[in-house]
User: Fold this.
Amino acid sequence: MENTSSDRDEPALMHPTDAEIASGRGSRSYAPTLTKDFVTERHRAYSSFPLRDSSVIDHPIFGWLRRDDALLLYEMAFFTPGNILEFGTHRGLSSSVMSEALTDAGKDYIIHTLEINREYLSDAKQSHLKAGLTNIRYHTGDAAKKVKRFLKKNKKFGFVFVDHSHRYDPTRIVCESLSDLMIDGGFAVFHDYVDRRNFDEDDHEYNVVKAIRDALPSHFIFRRISGCCALFQCQGDRLNAKRTARPGYPPTPGELV
Ligand SMILES: C[S@@+](CC[C@H](N)C(=O)[O-])C[C@H]1O[C@@H](n2cnc3c(N)ncnc32)[C@H](O)[C@@H]1O
Assistant:
């Protein structure tokens, strides 16, 4: 998959500074990565979706996706080269957006979604059933344990959406596993990356940025910010990739391949 974005000066392609994230100024508007325009009318509709609390989409399925988050998820699911793995189902909003995109793209791929809370998962299943979304498989339990099982079975995914616990260890564990879980060229999106709570020392619930810095291997290339999400692409020499913090991080746009 090629990155067709040509404008290297586009702000969303620049990694925000820590100060920007810490002060709540790191969020960016959606722009396509793999295409030039919205891919379907449904995709376009997310750009003007009604809002709740002036920030997140007011969807029949409750959740916390911004328009720019939903637009990015839809595009990545539409173009995925394989099955999708989601960390954190909650009530099924993000999985419904990705499920629609797979269906609209005419792809038979499946979304595997992981959730620790049985009640949430049951709600999500019911909402998906009501909406006629059948390309989703549900897994209850701690994501870290489920991931071990996927790795053992050598399962590979074209797109991974990380939105479960935003604490340091759960995010680090995902980062350490991603390389072996993903198809080369596939994308990973981390929700709540651009969130000031990641830089609040008293908030131990949010440590997404540090976990990624410490544990995401260096062949995951930063691509863009959309809403509060960060997009990385699994690309390059995975055998020689460093598994620890990389020098010169965050990357400048000039480093984008
Ligand atoms: C922010 S919500 C997910 C929202 C969902 N992605 C959406 O946009 O509709 C996070 C979810 O992750 C679940 N979760 C938290 N820790 C988890 C873990 N260790 N393994 C699996 N799920 C977890 C929570 O129960 C919660 O439902």
